[in-house]
Protein 1
Amino acid sequence: MAVIAILIDDMFEDVEYTTPAKAFREAGHSLVHLGLKKGAEVKGKKEGTVVAIDLETGSADPAAFDALFIPGGYSPDRLRAHKEPVVFARAFMETQKPLFLICHAPQLLISARVLEGRKLTGWKSVAVDIKNAGAEYIDAPVVIDGNMVSSRGPKDLPQFLNTCVEMLSKH
Amino acid sequence: MAVIAILIDDMFEDVEYTTPAKAFREAGHSLVHLGLKKGAEVKGKKEGTVVAIDLETGSADPAAFDALFIPGGYSPDRLRAHKEPVVFARAFMETQKPLFLICHAPQLLISARVLEGRKLTGWKSVAVDIKNAGAEYIDAPVVIDGNMVSSRGPKDLPQFLNTCVEMLSKH
């Protein structure tokens, strides 16, 4: 089964973490939470869901993980203000292993400058930033581009998770 | 004295509203709070500062105001998910009257597609989006480009407000 890295910080969209975490675990996968500080507890923006950071992003090796998942909310905006998560996201993108993005998650990849020529979706407020980064924004529940899966937000979670879990089962 | 429109929604950075509001009022200016719904109370993201919306953005006439101020935090991201604030910001930009931006405020102008060729600053996480929108990002406490004044965040408030109040005194 897969070891999935989750890049997360405070103000994440609770349901965009809790629902995928449950689905991935039920499918038999393991989760490793990467963040700015090992041992820190980060909180969701609506329900205050608490997530403990297992590993600092700066100490994480992309080769150690089979997939990367980035939940939305304002966590991606907070993460991209720091060098390490941006560097990790860029390095992981280069491995071409499964990468799962939802809502505001594309912001981190815009900062990593890896979206040029790619197709994806995301929360409507960041559509303009996705386009300005040289990518094609597609207004659909799920967009698959190679090993990159993206969705717009909480309403797309069922389709997003079906696609992600199916992709993981093939790796 | 000037009538200043303030475009604001939930999750604004408290101090980026409270400090400018105090400074503008002390300088004799009036404030009109524009938002998504008249009469709504919007709240700051850290201290829960409550601001009552005076007027819906969709009903506001840019000609009625002498200046526009957009506080930061996640308020600009929320506002730009709606058409009316984006349309208002674009129309106000065209009047060439004083426009004050701090922190994440440039996000709203990126969505309005009015930043190409302009010089500004903003919160470090949105620097890449500002550049991708065709503007020049300058890492300085205050950037003045015509009647547009921008700053990076809370630490720049003293210099930001000196510049804004001085500009208003000349109008």
Note: Chain A has a mean pLDDT of 97.
Protein 2
Amino acid sequence: MEHLQQSFTVQYNYNVFFTSALFAVDNTLFSDFLRQLNPAVTIKKILFIIDEGVAEAHTGLTSEIKQYFNQYSQTQLVQDIIVIPGGELVKNDTQYLDRVLEAINTHGIDRHSFVAAIGGGAVLDMVGYAATIAHRGIKHIRIPSTVLSQNDSGVGVKNGINYFNKKNFLGTFSPPVAVFNDELLLNSLSDRDWRSGIAEAIKVALIKDLEFFEWLEANATALANRDREAMNYQIWKCAKLHLEHIRSADPFENGSARPLDFGHWSAHKLEYLTNFEIRHGEAVAMGIALDTVYSNLSGRISAADAQRVIAVIQALGFELAHPLLQVNGANSPILQGLEEFREHLGGELTITLLTALGKGEEVHEIDADILKQAAELLQNQAAQHSTTTVL
Amino acid sequence: MEHLQQSFTVQYNYNVFFTSALFAVDNTLFSDFLRQLNPAVTIKKILFIIDEGVAEAHTGLTSEIKQYFNQYSQTQLVQDIIVIPGGELVKNDTQYLDRVLEAINTHGIDRHSFVAAIGGGAVLDMVGYAATIAHRGIKHIRIPSTVLSQNDSGVGVKNGINYFNKKNFLGTFSPPVAVFNDELLLNSLSDRDWRSGIAEAIKVALIKDLEFFEWLEANATALANRDREAMNYQIWKCAKLHLEHIRSADPFENGSARPLDFGHWSAHKLEYLTNFEIRHGEAVAMGIALDTVYSNLSGRISAADAQRVIAVIQALGFELAHPLLQVNGANSPILQGLEEFREHLGGELTITLLTALGKGEEVHEIDADILKQAAELLQNQAAQHSTTTVL
Ligand SMILES: NC(=O)c1ccc[n+]([C@@H]2O[C@H](COP(=O)([O-])OP(=O)(O)OC[C@H]3O[C@@H](n4cnc5c(N)ncnc54)[C@H](O)[C@@H]3O)[C@@H](O)[C@H]2O)c1
Ligand SMILES: NC(=O)c1ccc[n+]([C@@H]2O[C@H](COP(=O)([O-])OP(=O)(O)OC[C@H]3O[C@@H](n4cnc5c(N)ncnc54)[C@H](O)[C@@H]3O)[C@@H](O)[C@H]2O)c1
Ligand SMILES: [Zn+2]
Ligand SMILES: [Zn+2]
């Protein structure tokens, strides 16, 4: 019998909002959003999950949320606000996933209700995963509390947890119904975390937007000094470029190309090798430096352009290189990382390099000798820089 | 700062193939399919998971598959073919989900590789779920082995397992990359299972396609007598109508309307109350009878039309009614079921009734008195029928 062909498209829409003091009683942004979704449904609930790091740094948050929903009561707040650890632990130990699923079950959160997560990328990834598998997908709202999650991970479409000791082994492609970036949440970040997420802005600027790169050059010092206006613009612009990329390319990554992973192939390996003691953004900054210098040494961009990139990375206060990124013979971990990445991609390597500042190109081969030179050059430059700094 | 709007569509395509002896060495359908997907990727693997009920009834299947991939070796068969229990157990106990995830991990099945499940709806639901959460979605292939899974569940977009004692509490909307309906697999079904899935054909015919309903009237006896040609057409047509419905409406069920759940609201409650001893299709047949008679008693269709539906259900050998579907006072389980369903829908009830044979209508209120009458009428007719049968 003749075969049957199925073909359909599914539409996804969501907004990313920027605000200050999201749950201040006179800020109607959040309640307006909830009200306009599914007006026909009479029983809508909302369950909050908060990153412990955020709850500890913003001690009034829980009661602020309760007051807010006393005022705007068209959506029923689940009074049991759940606080879970932040960081990778929450993605490593499934007891936290189970806690969120249990709360969804106990409080009768269904597909007309909401799960809202306030936290860093790790908490958002895990809670998003829980929400998207419960009842085949409950509406989830992300309220990112780190620079990385406000400018990159929180505005995208991926959720997940670690399993079998593998990062993001379990996960879904499933966008939130909305993202609320509250600038006040960032006040409590350490300098390291404040800085770290900015690496994603350098990344996306280098492959997509020269003008934004030039803005980063001009504002690197302000950003390093925790200038609020500069940070707000950086987040807004970086989020915008990420959103545009997702919608223009292959949102659920059915192909193999992942240009937004510029600088990431070595970063992933380095994070893993250092047991995640190096922050994601710190590793990405080094990965960007490596792939930028490689782009120069392989004849794609000028040495002057590569130096501009290095200068921005250093002005922000990032390290340029790490001993584990050096190539010392065929068994170097970084070359192993390259091989693992090739296998991961199904046999053919795809890596983004630069052909200009603001323009990426996909390549399918990496020359080990050039990589070795690039890593050495960066190590020397880093040593020089730290000498200069000490003097 | 101005909010950012995200909006994109994702395209989904897959085919449903009909064949006989899928893994006979001269049947190239399966290997042709695998070859044309991602030709650029050099390392593609395939992991098979088989329903124990199928493996026991088709003892040569495992070695047939191994021979097949000896012949068509462009895709690497994982030699460790996994056999898991069939039926609801496999969705209830997460050890089976973990076994599939572990195999995906151990054998390095990535997003370029395939997981293929051969089995009834329960095995397909669970393996589909495992595949769609591993690495945020591995390509999964469904090879349904029951009538229900060939004509309905296996061709759709839902995957899931039971959790917290709740049916399909965890799951995803994520279509397979292909479905292969092999008629030979159905030989080993009991008469009860052979019949059960046909209820879904009555359902979809009644809400969408008068002509198909007339075909079912004309072929009910042949189907009950396990006529192969009739069964093949029934499956093909029913699968076609399900596929068309999914693509024309709301594939991932973002709204509340679920016309394909005609006859299902009471069926779900009955399955649950009988601890799933009544097959899904058997419960659906009774649910269809109930909602059809309700459609008549509420003035939507004629008594003669309702009798035609009842006649088809009985000719196929289904029971018409069950004591637990009777309305005896406000605490009757079926009225409770209605309330639970209303809550599940977020406060507003939506139930499909018939306005003609082949045409459904959504209603938002059910009258308990009319429901009581409908249930009684069916119970009497069932008693009469069984008397007639006995005499
Ligand atoms: N989904 C995606 O597309 C995507 C993309 C990139 C990264 N990620 C994931 O994001 C995670 C990293 O996220 P991250 O960099 O936001 O860090 P994080 O979530 O790991 O949090 C780091 C620490 O900061 C604390 N914290 C969070 N917000 C705070 C605040 N406002 N004040 C004080 N402390 C705070 C947390 O409690 C935690 O201890 C990783 O798991 C990574 O895999 C996901
Ligand atoms: N995903 C969906 O859209 C969807 C829709 C409807 C139903 N379902 C699910 O499907 C499941 C029911 O599926 P089902 O009716 O196919 O039954 P099943 O999967 O529960 O299997 C019933 C029994 O038949 C055995 N079996 C399967 N194929 C056989 C064969 N060819 N020969 C001999 N024995 C065989 C199994 O081992 C099992 O013991 C339920 O879990 C239900 O929730 C899913
Ligand atoms: Zn990153
Ligand atoms: Zn059904």
Note: The two ends of chain A are 81 Å apart (CA to CA).
